[in-house]
Amino acid sequence: MSELWRRLRMLLSRERFERELEEEIQSHLEMQTGDNQEHGMAPEEARYAARRQFGNAALLKEVSADAWGWRWFEALAQDLRYALRTLRRRPGFTAIAILSLALGIGVNIAIFSFINGVLLRPLPVPEAERMVSIYHRSSKGWLSSSSYPDYTFYRNHNDVFTGMLAYLRVPMLLRTGEVDEKLSGELVSSDYFSLLGLKPVAGRWFGGERGGSAQEQPLVILSYDFWQRRYGHDSAVIGRSLRIGAGSFTVSGVAPPGFHGLVLDWGDPPEFWVPMRMYRQAVPAFRDMDILNYWGMQSFLVAGRLRPGVSFDQAQAALAVLSSRAAPLRQSAFRERSGFTPELYPARRARFWPAYRGSVTGFLALLAASVGLILLIACLNLANLLLARTSQRRKEIAIRMSIGSGRGRLIRQFLTESLVLSLLGGAAGLLVARWTAAYLTSFHRPFKISLTFDGGMDVPVLTFALLLSVATGVLFGMIPAAQASGVNMTAALKADSLKVAAGLRGIALRDALVIAQVALSALLLAGAGLFLRTVENARAEDVTLDPGKVLVANLDPTLSGYDAQRRQVFYSQLLDRVKALPGVAGAALIELVPLGGFRGGTEIIVPAGENRGGSTRVQVDYNAASPGYFETVGLPLVRGRAFTEHDRKGAPGVAVINEVMAGRFWPGLDPSGRRFSLTWREGGEVEVVGVVRDGKFRNFRDSHRPCFYVPLAQHGSSRMSLEVRSTGDPMNLVAAIRGEVRALDAAMPVTDFLTLQSIREQGMSQERLIASLLTGFGVLALVLAAIGVYGVTSFSVIQRTREIGIRMALGAKAGQVAGTVLRRSAALALSGLAIGWLGALALGRLIAGLLYGVSAADPAIFAIISSVLLAVAMLAAYFPARRAASVDPMTALRYE
Amino acid sequence: MLSAGKSKTEIPPGTLEMLILKTLKRFGAMHGYGIAKSIQQTSDEVLRVEEGSLYPALQRILIKGWVTAEWVQAGSKRRMRVYHLTPAGRKQLAAEISEYRRVSQAIERVIEPA
Hints:
The complex is a heterodimer.
Chain A (H helix, E strand, L loop, with lengths): L2 H10 L1 H25 L4 H12 L2 H10 L4 H19 L1 H30 L10 E8 L4 E2 L3 H10 L3 E15 L5 E8 L3 H5 L5 E2 L15 E4 L1 H8 L9 E4 L2 E8 L17 E4 L3 H4 L18 E6 L5 H19 L9 E7 L10 H36 L1 H9 L4 H35 L17 H27 L3 H5 L7 H39 L10 E6 L8 H16 L4 E7 L9 E7 L9 E10 L3 H5 L3 E4 L13 E5 H7 L9 E4 L5 E9 L14 E5 L8 E7 L7 H11 L5 E6 H8 L1 H35 L1 H9 L4 H33 L12 H27 L3 H6 L2
Parallel strand pairs in A: 4-9, 6-8, 15-20, 17-19
Antiparallel strand pairs in A: 1-2, 1-10, 1-11, 3-4, 3-7, 3-10, 5-8, 6-9, 7-8, 12-21, 12-22, 13-21, 14-15, 14-18, 16-19, 17-20, 18-19
Helix pairs in contact in A: 2-3, 5-14, 6-12, 6-14, 6-15, 7-11, 12-15, 12-17, 12-23, 14-15, 17-23, 17-25, 17-26, 18-21, 23-26, 25-26
Chain B lengths: L14 H13 L2 E2 H11 L8 H14 L2 E8 L3 E8 L1 H25 L3
Antiparallel strand pairs in B: 1-3, 2-3
Helix pairs in contact in B: 1-2, 1-4
């Protein structure tokens, strides 16, 4: 029986312990009394002498109990019981406190779960810290991933890694017999899993890299989630075959749960993995490409596991040497580029494109700062409420101190109360966190890049929640505790509590708290205003007409193995069918949807003579569109004509350009009939036939770039978006459009039905997310600040009742009295407002990069928020002021 | 605490446990009153065990596992808690005695007139 066990048993049978000790003492006393009588004492005297000799039995019991080391625990239990009783007696206060804490702590947990999921959580592989990700930086400063020959070269020549892996995440078509499914998959080098050190939960991995022919086999590894969803954990799936792309793959194994590939970006997490060398079968779009030997395709992500004893820096240096040895080989793919230097990252820091790290952490920092402010406001509010309560409980506190409660014990009692509140608030906050996280993830790509991560509640998140709750409790409990323990006993015990110095100090402190609350609300509201304006300005960049009426869907016939000719036929048949549907005002195909996040860049040659200067080779944007596109999205034609059915393959090449391009190359001239050459097409000269209004392609922050459109029929685009203008609710057309696609090809997937407006909104989801968060938080903060102003004002009115009575008796009018009260609150609000604005101006500079078309010193936002805050503060002070004005002098003077 | 009769000495801190253990070893299982009395008698009334120290000390050595306690019926109504030395207590006693000897011999050497 160990010592701890004995201690625990004693704790659990505490009553028995006391009973037995008492019995032991009694028997001791009886024996002593007996002995005393034997020595000739009278019975009474003998008992008395025994007792006197025994001494303080109560102290003895306490010291004996102390020996077991549970005294702190009993004091805690007592404090807890007392705290719970106090809180139960005031259900209204307790409910408000727990609710505001739940909100304050909950949003912080939610944001932390994001930070945890994106930045903190380690890679789910053994010895993850030995994994290194390899990127390249060009001499121009651009970061790129690696080509497959880069990878094989490094793998075959390095002596710093125990092994290296490469992977490419691409959408693949899973053919199920019904409508095919476009799923995210990864092409991986064959020792991918074994190098990561993972164990399959069923089946086995691909054969080892040097296992010879193993990697040529059409095998597939399923993700755990896919296995669970599709096959319900059935191990019998091993050995079954799956049709992926143009090939048939045998299920070889299942990856462990929680493993979703190494990176969080690059599209959805992979549902399955196939050997790299099977790329032609798995991804028909690559059928005619030699991706394993092409140095120019720097799309592969490469990682290595450091050999024991090799440091990160040694690996970096070794790869730099190898890379310069590979330089002559790379020349084949890059005409003029001077070279690439390998850039290594610990794999944990390369969970997403390393160049975006700053923007992702900046965004998370902004979120963390906003939710931190919210919690701070909630704390201030609670400190304020508790202070008000402390002044009411001053008498109780004084009594407890006069019967010997130590100052420390009192502070502990107060902290226990606030900790009980904050822990309850934290528990409720977990619910708030779930809702907040669900709300935040409902925004499409808030990180600008697509990041799929699990913001779930794991051990670090729960630990954070607990620590945050405790810290919160200490923070808002410390102020009233310090205040209470400073209570002057004799003064407080006297009935006339109006003159108690501690009470007045409390008022000054509460004023400061209210000012801080107003300042923080102003800060949050200012932020909300800036981001609402940003979103509004961003929407104004959309030049399409009524984009909510245009339905967009994505088609990728190349995935289904269509060649260029079949694609053209498919597209034109589909357009004819969709246009004939009822409720369709127009339909067209476009390669890149406006504000959809992508732009196509290309080089063109504007020959001498077509231009004021000589022949120029320039980089411009391009897009491919079917006839009817400009009408369908409502992009106005400024000059010339749009594409027609006659602009087909074989007909003279044509292009429609935008105003910026017209102004750049043919300023002051009519560009119609002018010519330029496409560098990607042999003899690709095209004639300008029309000019359309400028628009932004990738996102609203783009500048207006020179851009031209070519007819779809003269350009072999593979992936196209169908845009359909509806006369009614565009979502009603989804089923009909699916039907038309199915009628042409039963297995062809058509994905991502969204309106043009939703796409635009998704493109600014980070700004919208911040705007709605800050608006919500700002309003919340405003309400809390109003409660604060109301509380502190009514408290001061109650405390000054007698003074007000005297003034009124001396002839002050009700209006004057109310005015004094209102002026005081206005002073509080204005002080807070001033501080808040100074803060907003300072912080505004930090977030300038996230704003669009508005600056932190925006006068309109300042005016609106100042008047709203002042109005709310005045409204909150109105009721106490009215109460002050209605004080009856006679009653007030008799008061107390 | 007043003590009647001739001068009695408080037991030096830390040695009470050793005396309790030794008493239990010498006389076998015993209740608290008996332990106090026998220390007093064995020391020729020089050492006086305070009840206020005895019972907490008994709790401390109970926690350590050096003694065990059991209730025995004494007479029709009364029960007494009787303490037994455990093997761990025996070992502890030996250690404490040798430590005590070492220290007191050292003190002896220091105060011995040279």
